[in-house]
Amino acid sequence: MKQNLIAGQWLGGVDAVENRNPADISEVIGLYARASADQVDMAAQAARAALPAWANASPQLRSDLLESVAAQLFARKDEIGAILAREEGKTLAEAVGETARAAQIFRFFAGEAIRVAGDAIASVRPDVDVDVVREPVGVIGLITPWNFPIAIPAWKIAPALAYGNTVLFKPADLTPASAHILSEIIDQAGCPAGVFNLVMGQGSIVGNAIATHPQVDAISFTGSVPVGRNLAVTAAQGMKKVQLEMGGKNPMVVMDDADLDIAVPAVLNGAFYSTGQRCTASSRIIVDAGIHDAFVDRLATEALALNIGNPLDPQVQIGPVVSEKQLAGNLDYVRIAAEEGAEVIGGERLNRETEGYFQMPALFVNATNDMRSSREEIFGPCASIIKVAGFDEALAAANDTEFGLSSGICTSSLKYAREFKRQSQAGMVMVNLPTAGVDYHVPFGGRKGSSYGSREQGRYAAEFYTAVKTAYSFAG
């Protein structure tokens, strides 16, 4: 059984969860201990005790630790990627790429650890010096989702440690294997006891214990909108700093001047790769009437031709949905879309050589922007096709959502591209690129109901993981 890491010790839990392969549910990848609320308390106390030494440690020491973790992730990316593909269901190529990205993130923040800058500002008063510095926030609780089980933990853990914070890390209960390997690597790299703690388990127990613990100063969460909103209320009651990355109902606009050789692959990638299980997935395809029929015909043909199966098979393009519950929810939305009047292409459950949660990509053609299937996040391989007349209507439809994470436009017009980048109400905008797929060294995050708090990744991560102090000195 894989154990929790608390105060430098590997400890069992109150019970354990089976980690099963969604492409072959007869395969148990491993048993993973679930921590108790009391063990979360132990971890929080250990993190608090370890904080002064880690916060005041040489930035070179922190940099060296992160560089060591990066090196191990790079060296083991094929091995870890295979485990990730088995537990989450994404293809082997995607899983290996995600592991390499986690390594790149740790390497980036290894550099940032020794580049924590401040400002020396002239005072408006004579003989007074002003210094502005960044300091660690303190003990940080990190709660991560199942869809990127090593990359998202990496982009939270690496900056937290780089800037001198200590960590309580709760990975998704559905996909603990990748996170556990990452935690082993951090421990083996020489991370001091208590600086990094792994507490696995259910959100209702472990996540709630982290959110309400008085020793936790800040919480970074990626997951569903309802959980995120409840977490924001809980954090406010405890006066904790909070960062939330939640849902998306991301639009991809296809103008009538778009190159179909660019637009169709961009939509296929954004809507269906990773089985559509990305918060940045293109789930609303807003198509100009002049190109609508030709675009839909080609997109439907290529979507139905995608190779769906065992993610370890190099010929497979899309693996299974992550769980039976997720698949049932996807199929409910296929039914809802049909009942709302959309023409459904694909979307059915598929049988393969092994019993798993396979689904054909679904297109909801002739959808409208007010349908439930066009407004609610499905988090699966389902996309609404919404016909519009011209750019203004396309832009209005794209912005008509409670979410605002990612958006995209396919066009050959510089005017349309420029105006869309300026007017799109999203935190990230793509031109002739999939809405899903971002760089690790630049800000990640959205607007409206998609995100709350400061941005993740890149140098903007310092806004959450550090606190600003202004110091005045009289030199007279």
Tell me about this structure.
This protein is of the alpha/beta class and 476 residues long. The protein has 2 domains: 4-246 and 440-474, Aldehyde Dehydrogenase, Chain A, domain 1 (3-Layer(aba) Sandwich), CATH 3.40.605; 250-431, Aldehyde Dehydrogenase, Chain A, domain 2. The protein is built from 15 helices and 22 strands. The protein has a 7-stranded mixed beta sheet with strand order 14-17-18-13-12-19-20, sandwiched between helices. A 6-stranded mixed beta sheet has the order 9-8-7-10-11-21, with helices on both faces. The N and C termini lie far apart (64 Å).
Query: Strand portion, in percent?
Result: 15-25%
Average the pLDDT over all residues and give the rounded result: 97
Uncertain regions spanning at least 5 consecutive residues: none
Task: Name the CATH superfamily classification of the largest domain.
Answer: Aldehyde Dehydrogenase, Chain A, domain 1
Q: What general outline do the C-alpha atoms trace?
A: globular
CATH-defined fold name of the largest domain: Aldehyde Dehydrogenase, Chain A, domain 1
Tell me roughly what share of residues is in helical segments. Answer: 25-40%
Terminus-to-terminus distance: 64 Å
CATH class term of the largest domain: Alpha Beta
Q: Tell me the radius of gyration.
A: 23 Å
What structural class do you assign from the helix and strand content?
alpha/beta
CATH architecture verdict of the largest domain: 3-Layer(aba) Sandwich
Number of domains: 2
DSSP strand count: 22
Main sheet overview = 7 strands, mixed
Number of H/I helices: 15
